[in-house]
């Protein structure tokens, strides 16, 4: 009886774990809205990342033949720079990320990483080289420690704890009954949007890929969470080339460059100061957000 019980029980565990991870993969594709339809070229070589520089050269793309979404996008990101992408909803920001990952092929132009066209390299090597902090992070029904270790399953506890500290999660964890061993998810703790995104940052720090893409959550954060995310993001972009889709312009003030997208084109680029000086699209977005913040501050104050 025992002999049957244990394997069945174990199989049940494996099934639940597999179902969980399949659901997560499905969810990931749903979040990215992606069909994994692209295949490697027969002679695809692995991507060799030496520096982590990225270049978009006159990239054009549409999800269907009737509507062009990217209308000739060109920009370069130097190794270890932090570049923010801003612009109205629907401007094409996430589409840039999907093409960098080669979830779709551009209809014209080239996307290069350290001089290698993403359509020539194996997708496996491409995705290993790029870490993602998505808007909505999938957490497993395990401890915080294990959720972070997912970034690099070979990492020891010390390395995981260091990533947790760098992602500014240590103060939060110190308040939990079982610290980093506290379970999250269905049977455990529910994390706020900001805390979840910091778990994703800790994972990415542990994975330590040469290129990071960060899709900032649109959900509103209290200023304490926002500060935590900003510091964690600074940690993340210290050594890696980092691309950030930013919804809150406070995230982009210290970026090496800001790309302003409008209707499938990069219409402005420069530092925060330079773009404010230019007094065009970015400057008006900035003024609008400053006004909204002041209204929020007034509404939130007792
Ligand atoms: P947001 O800030 O709202 O996330 P965004 O700037 O990231 O917007 P994208 O998600 O890149 O914008 O979308 C650009 C345009 O492409 C939008 O008009 C969108 O409706 C369209 N689009 C996005 N994904 C698909 C898809 N899978 N099929 C068809 N159209 C799509």
UniProtKB/TrEMBL annotation:
The chain crosses the membrane at residues 1-15. The keyword Glycoprotein does not apply. Residues 54-288 form the ABC transporter domain. GO terms for molecular function: ATP binding. It is found in: Cell membrane. It is a multi-pass membrane protein. Keywords: ATP-binding, Membrane, Nucleotide-binding, Transmembrane, Transmembrane helix. Its main location: membrane. Coiled coil: none annotated. This is ABCB family ABC transporter ATP-binding protein/permease. It comes from Microbulbifer celer. The chain holds residues 301 to 602 of 602 of the full protein.
């Amino acid at each position: 009886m025992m002999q049957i019980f244990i394997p069945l029980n174990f199989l049940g565990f494996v099934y639940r774990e597999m179902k969980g991870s399949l659901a997560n993969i499905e969810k990931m594709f749903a979040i990215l809205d992606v069909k994994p339809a692209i295949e490697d070229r027969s002679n695809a070589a692995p991507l060799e990342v030496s520096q982590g520089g990225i270049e978009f050269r006159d990239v054009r793309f549409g999800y269907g033949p009737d509507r062009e979404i990217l209308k000739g996008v060109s920009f370069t990101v130097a190794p270890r720079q932090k570049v923010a992408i801003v612009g109205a909803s629907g401007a094409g920001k996430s589409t840039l990320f999907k093409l960098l990952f080669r979830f779709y092929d551009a209809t014209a132009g080239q996307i290069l990483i350290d001089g290698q066209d993403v359509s020539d390299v194996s997708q496996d090597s491409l995705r290993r080289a790029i870490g993602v902090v998505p808007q909505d992070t999938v957490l497993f029904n395990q401890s915080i420690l294990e959720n972070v270790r997912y970034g690099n399953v070979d990492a020891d506890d010390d390395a995981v704890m260091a990533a947790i500290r760098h992602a500014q999660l240590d103060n939060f964890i110190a308040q939990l009954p079982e610290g980093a061993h506290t379970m999250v998810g269905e049977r455990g703790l529910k994390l706020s949007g900001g805390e979840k995104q910091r778990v994703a940052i800790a994972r990415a720090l542990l994975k330590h890929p040469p290129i990071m893409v960060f899709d900032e959550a649109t959900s509103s954060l209290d200023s304490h969470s926002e500060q935590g995310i900003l510091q964690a993001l600074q940690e993340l972009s210290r050594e890696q080339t980092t691309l950030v889709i930013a919804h809150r312009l406070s995230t982009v003030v210290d970026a090496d460059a800001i790309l302003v997208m409008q209707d499938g084109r990069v219409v402005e680029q420069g530092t925060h100061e330079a773009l404010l000086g230019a007094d065009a699209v970015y400057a008006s977005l900035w003024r609008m957000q400053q006004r909204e913040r002041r209204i929020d501050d007034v509404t939130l104050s007792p």
